[in-house]
């Protein structure tokens, strides 16, 4: 499984693929409307081109032939075409200002949010928060909010002059040919420069996304960095990220500006040549002076958009690269669910010859693990750091699937249990508690939104939360975003236990929640845990062996293998890793701080 690929692509995306991704992006609800809007803009650009071409007959009728009726007819044609173009454009842009595009943007954000919930957690954890944030907000906005405006500008710059050129055949084929000859002159230039410009834009988008992630991580890590007096050194890293961004911006400007100036010059020159040809034809009496005057108006009107069109195509690159990133994220498949779907009604747990390797790791983190946890038993996982304890619990929560073997709850393979039902079977209490920016009540209730007030209160009481919740400035309604940082580690931990109690799942995973607490908080948290684990199948990751010596069973993991299992006394009786760990921890317990000036003995 790999993280969403955000690497810059080499060449420009073919237009058709971009079109399809755009339609997928706005979703089936808005796609027909957007298609109509784009076609409307295209038609408006064509009508505008025809309107411009009709200026020539207006001029010749009025100024050369002095035929007022004919002149007025052509003027009416010009006006009708211009009005029709404006109406079409107005209606097409209505897609934006009626709020349909904003609604589509919102739906896309929600779909991305749903995808984040669906995708395998292992993949999600490999993505950096800042990059995801930048994708869900900026990429989506870049893509959808600007699409119609940019397309409109491109159509005015390219389609309108092209339509004018074609229509000019009806007036004077030589002028029409000369006019259309400007296009073949710019196209090779455009095709030659576009890939480099596209690359520039894509690298820039990628650099923005990385900088976003760096800034977020820096801000989040500041307390740790300051404590470690590393705020400066990490700031240097951030400065380097910004330097890279600056270099890429400069590169992008170089790659973008040069072709712009070049195309603008070619366009200006080409149009001057068209006028020179017209002047020559007039001099030889082959073209009407009034027609040349009309041509002059057309050239003046079109030279500006035509010479800047390459600028707008660069914006298309940004849209394409955002669509690429969104498509890459949406392509990530959730872990498949095998048929027939089944929900266990017993809660014993079985690992059957499970081998698991992380996508980025050379060696398996778990090797041939077979074990059985009876229902309503308390099992502790012990072993040195990196031995695979956390990995084993992650597999039980199905954050990833093992490459070999199977994991079963109540005899049902995890792969057959629907994801939301599996989530309902397991409560987890981690060492680090994540509190959401919401009230205390909402933070606990999130485990079971339909819980009654009485159930909420009972869970908080059993988790020993009531006394501190009632002391908070607004009690249950205190927003934790404001004061989350002021709660002690033990209090935060008890809120997370209250959550788990309210959820009342039959299986409980504890990642030794008391490891980081002082003795007093540990006691109250321990009492809360006792309430939580009653009658549950419990798996505890234990760092301090003294806390789990009373477990029904201990599993000793070493380098991804299960090397011993049994009760504390049984494991202590035979020489091995457990006895060594126990002895080392007992020695460490006797360790105490010695006041300066006295010597330890
Ligand atoms: N996302 C990952 N990608 C690659 N390797 C990983 C990943 N997560 C963990 N590992 C590796 O898998 C092995 C087992 O890690 P795990 O976190 O399960 O150990 P642990 O026993 O829980 O350690 P600790 O007690 O320090 O928390 C380690 O070698 C670790 O480096």
Automatic annotation (TrEMBL):
<feature type="domain" description="ABC transmembrane type-1">
    <location>
        <begin position="37"/>
        <end position="318"/>
    </location>
</feature>
<keyword id="KW-1133">Transmembrane helix</keyword>
<feature type="transmembrane region" description="Helical">
    <location>
        <begin position="71"/>
        <end position="90"/>
    </location>
</feature>
<dbReference type="Pfam" id="PF00664">
    <property type="entry name" value="ABC_membrane"/>
</dbReference>
<dbReference type="InterPro" id="IPR036640">
    <property type="entry name" value="ABC1_TM_sf"/>
</dbReference>
<keyword id="KW-0812">Transmembrane</keyword>
<feature type="transmembrane region" description="Helical">
    <location>
        <begin position="175"/>
        <end position="192"/>
    </location>
</feature>
<keyword id="KW-0547">Nucleotide-binding</keyword>
<dbReference type="InterPro" id="IPR027417">
    <property type="entry name" value="P-loop_NTPase"/>
</dbReference>
<dbReference type="Pfam" id="PF00005">
    <property type="entry name" value="ABC_tran"/>
</dbReference>
<feature type="transmembrane region" description="Helical">
    <location>
        <begin position="150"/>
        <end position="169"/>
    </location>
</feature>
<feature type="transmembrane region" description="Helical">
    <location>
        <begin position="38"/>
        <end position="59"/>
    </location>
</feature>
<dbReference type="InterPro" id="IPR003439">
    <property type="entry name" value="ABC_transporter-like_ATP-bd"/>
</dbReference>
<keyword id="KW-0472">Membrane</keyword>
<dbReference type="InterPro" id="IPR017871">
    <property type="entry name" value="ABC_transporter-like_CS"/>
</dbReference>
<feature type="domain" description="ABC transporter">
    <location>
        <begin position="349"/>
        <end position="584"/>
    </location>
</feature>
<dbReference type="GO" id="GO:0005524">
    <property type="term" value="F:ATP binding"/>
</dbReference>
<dbReference type="InterPro" id="IPR003593">
    <property type="entry name" value="AAA+_ATPase"/>
</dbReference>
<dbReference type="InterPro" id="IPR039421">
    <property type="entry name" value="Type_1_exporter"/>
</dbReference>
<feature type="transmembrane region" description="Helical">
    <location>
        <begin position="261"/>
        <end position="284"/>
    </location>
</feature>
<keyword id="KW-0067">ATP-binding</keyword>
<dbReference type="InterPro" id="IPR011527">
    <property type="entry name" value="ABC1_TM_dom"/>
</dbReference>
<protein>
    <submittedName>
        <fullName>ABC transporter ATP-binding protein</fullName>
    </submittedName>
</protein>
